[in-house]
Structure formats: structure tokens, C-alpha cells
Specification:
By secondary structure, this protein is α/β, with parallel strands linked by helices. The chain has helices spanning 3-9, 54-64, 77-82, 107-123, 141-152, 156-162, 185-195, 206-212, 216-223, 249-258, 276-287, and strands at residues 41-44, 68-72, 86-90, 128-131, 165-169, 200-205, 227-231, 264-267. Helices cover 37% and strands 13% of the residues. The strands form 2 sheets. Strands 1-8-7-6-5-4 form a 6-stranded parallel sheet. Strands 2-3 form a two-stranded parallel ribbon. Helix 10 (249-258) links the parallel strand 7 (227-231) and strand 8 (264-267). Helix 5 runs parallel beside helix 7 and helix 9 runs parallel beside helix 10.
Length: 289
């Protein structure tokens, strides 16, 4: 399953089936981490583990000591609260990745959706709510930028009132999300500057930006005030973040911490191991600097 399908079917869709791609067995995780340094607020994206029933997955997070989960909606929050798992990046509004704020014809529906979900996010005790630029579809990046400013300004006052931060995700348009507009940090940062609101940030996805522009650590150092959240993933392949791929995550995590970042870092790699929870444990251990 691709994330595009998971999100596109419904922002508040029930989880589907993710088929394991390899049969690399690992020991089942039954004990928590011996020690977490607690310098990083670890999270994990639910869609990458959608083959595991929600309650079983939450129990595994408790065992691992992971306290947050990304990309969940109101239908998930009651069970997450039961297991004391925080919703670190919420969804529940919008029209998916391809139809977003860069297209004025979607603004009416988007504004209505976001004005409804923002109070619900705050009432549940959460802060971050995801959004997307949408695809170019022949539109210039300049026009799309202006359109995003026009639309997002309609929801930011309510977001500020409720203490909710709208976060637009940076995605690659080369491999996974062809034609997506918010595909470079410079474009996203300019959007942040034009909106001029602490209630709008960028979700910096390390995997996606490695594909589009590389220079990950320098980008984090230069633009960190505009980044409100991070996602991981191994490149190439978007699988485990260990020695099988080209990014060195301990150095990246250290660079993030050195900026004074206090938000969440969510694992968003698609596990290939037979034991997906063991793969998740490895990923969190790598990032626990």
C-alpha cells in the first residue's frame, strides 16, 4: 500500500492491509527499551503498520516506550487515549495529497473541513494538523504559492485561537507523488514567510527531501524555524533506516536536536522485516541520540 492511497481514500479512513515485502525474520519485541535518552520525542506513522490491528499496535508502542503516533483522526483518538498514546500529527480534513490549497476551486470545501476539525483537534488535546499543497496540474509554482496564501489565511485565525499548528508536508515529486507542488524546502519556506504565522509550519520529510534536494543537515540548520515536525524513511526504497540505505540518521537527529527542536520525529519507513515491530524498534533506537 502506498501512502497516497491510504490518505486519498479518506482523511479519516479506517486502516487497510499492508503486505510485508520480505521475510527477514527478527526476534519478536517483548521487552521495552533498556534506556531511552528522552532527547527525541519519538513517534510513528500508523499507515506503515496498518496490517497490525490498532489495539495490538498500541500495546506494542507501550512496550517499546513510544508515546506518540502520526496520521490519525478522531475515530482513532479514543483508543489511543486508552493506551496513553499522543496524536502527534492529526488528519481529518482535506481532499488528499493531490487536491490541495494551491487550487482555488477547492478552497471552499477545504476551508469548511478545516474549520470543523481544528476545534476537535484542540478539544482532544492535540496541536498538529496536516495539510497538502496539491499537484501542479500545469499551474506555475508562483501562482500556486499565492493561491495557498489566499486559502490558508482563511483558517489560520481559528488555528491560532485554538493553539493548533497547520503543517504542510514536503513530499517528493520525482518518485512517489508526481507533480506535487510543495516539493522543495525553498518553496515551503517562502509560503511560511508570506503567511507570517506561528500556526503554520512545514512537515520536513527527510526521505522525500533527500530525493528532491539532498543537503539534509544544512537545510535543517538553515530553515529549522519553519519546520514543525519531521518524518524519517530510508532512501532508496523508503524502508528501514539502517545501513541498507544512504542516510545517516544519527547525525541528522543530532542536527535536529542542536536547533533546539522540541517537537516530534515520526518513523515513516515501510518495514520489510517479517517482524515489523522489531524493525520499528531498530529505527527508534537509531534515532535515539
Amino acid at each position: 500500500m502506498k501512502r497516497r492511497s491510504f490518505i486519498g481514500s479518506s482523511a479519516a479512513a479506517s486502516v487497510g492491509l499492508l503486505v510485508s515485502q520480505t521475510a527477514n525474520a527478527r526476534t519478536t519485541v517483548t521487552t521495552p527499551f533498556a534506556e531511552l535518552k528522552n532527547n527525541v520525542n519519538h513517534s510513528v506513522c500508523r499507515w506503515c503498520y496498518s496490517s497490525i490491528p490498532m489495539e495490538d499496535f498500541l500495546k506494542s508502542l507501550n512496550t517499546l516506550g513510544i508515546k506518540s503516533m502520526d496520521l490519525t483522526g478522531p475515530e482513532d483518538w479514543p483508543m489511543m487515549k486508552k493506551y496513553d498514546i499522543h496524536a502527534s500529527m492529526c488528519w481529518g480534513a482535506g481532499m488528499g495529497i493531490e487536491k490541495g490549497w494551491n487550487e482555488p476551486k477547492y478552497h471552499e470545501d477545504l476551508i469548511k473541513d478545516y474549520l470543523q476539525i481544528i476545534p476537535k483537534v484542540a478539544e482532544a488535546g492535540y496541536t498538529n494538523l496536516i495539510c497538502f499543497s496539491g499537484n501542479r496540474a500545469g499551474m506555475s509554482d508562483f501562482v500556486g504559492l499565492e493561491n495557498c496564501v489566499t486559502g490558508l489565511k482563511q483558517i489560520l485565525p481559528l488555528a491560532a485561537e485554538h493553539g493548533v499548528v497547520i503543517q504542510m508536508e514536503l513530499l517528493n515529486s520525482k518518485i512517489d507523488h508526481k507533480d506535487y507542488m510543495c516539493d522543495h524546502s525553498d518553496w515551503g519556506v517562502e509560503l511560511c514567510r508570506r503567511l507570517g504565522s506561528e500556526n503554520f509550519k512545514l512537515l520536513y520529510d527527510i526521505y522525500h527531501m533527500q530525493i528532491m534536494e539532498g543537503d539534509v543537515i544544512r537545510t535543517i540548520q538553515n530553515y529549522h524555524p519553519y519546520f514543525g515536525h519531521y518524518h524519517t524513511g530510508g532512501n532508496p526504497g523508503r524502508h528501514e533506516i539502517n545501513q541498507t540505505q544512504e542516510l545517516y540518521y544519527p547525525a541528522i537527529m543530532q542536527a535536529i536536536l542542536e536547533t533546539g527542536f522540541k517537537g516530534h520525529v515520526a518513523q515513516e519507513f515501510i518495514p520489510t522485516w517479517e517482524d515489523k515491530i522489531a524493525a520499528l524498534k531498530e529505527g527508534v533506537t537509531i534515532c535515539d541520540v
